[in-house]
Design brief:
By secondary structure, the protein is mainly alpha-helical. It contains ten helices and no strands.
């Protein structure tokens, strides 16, 4: 199956998924809580994508959901809240669309097609044995959906509470959000250039990757932190809205980064020297090599 046909199939699945989510907003029974309506619609859409991934035997069907869903969920909340958008709402919308376009574009560029599945998914499913379907549903589809939804709670606060003027914290959040997207873009471009010219067994330690072993994860965490700060700016006493960013940090540090580091060590033993010299997460000047 060609890449074009693969993308078309993913696109059709997403149209059906988001249509099902929108149908819940339009005709589903009211829950009296707009955030809960959003969560149910989100899970319904996730279920549709899960079915598509099972039919195609490829859980990477879900990969772009991470970046496509948030702007649509914000739009749904915006419409359902039926409140005039203030300057903060527009700033959040700008940062989110900027992030979503970059991340989705990167996925479209990098994904070769239906013959490719993220290496982590078969590993998780193989370890699950008879519980493979449950792991596929919960660990690969539902848990990331809940993680992203938690990261979106500050956006819900921003959209539904439009009675507070902009403050210095909004501009800090704006700078962090834009900077995060630019950093991720630069890190991806540098990695693609390195991949075209690297020697067998060579580990990436150039550009941003000489200051952090995972600058893309740091940028992704920074984006969700920016959303959290926007939420705090809209409701200064609701610091709990940062739980999504904290969860993202825990996900990267507790699961994503260890899995990536183990895989890099297995494929490129020279990566051990990079670990000894280059900071793990937060970018800073590298230590001198031994």
């Amino acid at each position: 199956m060609s890449k074009t046909e693969s993308l078309v199939r993913v696109g059709i699945a997403y149209v059906v998924a988001f249509g099902a989510g929108a149908a819940w907003f339009a005709w589903g029974p009211a829950t009296a809580h707009l955030w809960l309506d959003g969560l149910i619609a989100d899970l319904i859409a996730t279920g549709v994508v899960f079915v598509a991934s099972r039919l195609h035997k490829n859980s990477s069907f879900y990969d772009a959901y991470w970046s496509v869903l948030p702007p649509l969920l914000m739009l749904a909340w915006w419409i359902e809240a039926d409140r005039p958008a203030d300057a903060r709402v527009w700033l959040v919308a700008f940062v989110m669309v900027f992030w979503a376009v970059r991340l989705t574009g990167n996925w479209i560029y990098a994904w070769p097609g239906m013959h490719h599945e993220d290496w982590r998914y078969p590993m998780l499913k193989d370890k699950a044995g008879r519980a493979e379907l449950v792991v596929d549903l919960m660990a690969i589809h539902v848990f990331p959906t809940l993680q992203v939804f938690a990261g979106m709670l500050p956006v819900y606060i921003v959209v539904t509470r439009t009675d507070r003027s902009l403050s210095w914290l909004d501009f800090v959040a704006l700078a962090i959000g834009i900077g995060a997207v630019v950093l991720e873009f630069a890190a991806d471009v540098q990695m693609y250039r390195f991949a075209r010219t690297r020697q067998p067994g060579q580990a990436m330690d150039q550009g941003l990757w000489s200051w952090s072993r995972h600058p893309n994860y740091f940028g992704e965490f920074s984006f969700w932190l920016a959303l959290g700060l926007f939420g705090v700016a809209a409701a200064p006493h609701d610091w709990w809205v940062l739980v999504g960013a904290v969860g993202m940090f825990a996900l990267f540090e507790g699961a994503s980064i260890p899995m990536m580091e183990q895989r890099s060590l297995e494929r490129r033993p020279s990566y051990a020297e990079v670990i000894a010299r280059v900071p793990r997460f937060v970018p800073r000047p590298p230590r001198k090599g031994s």
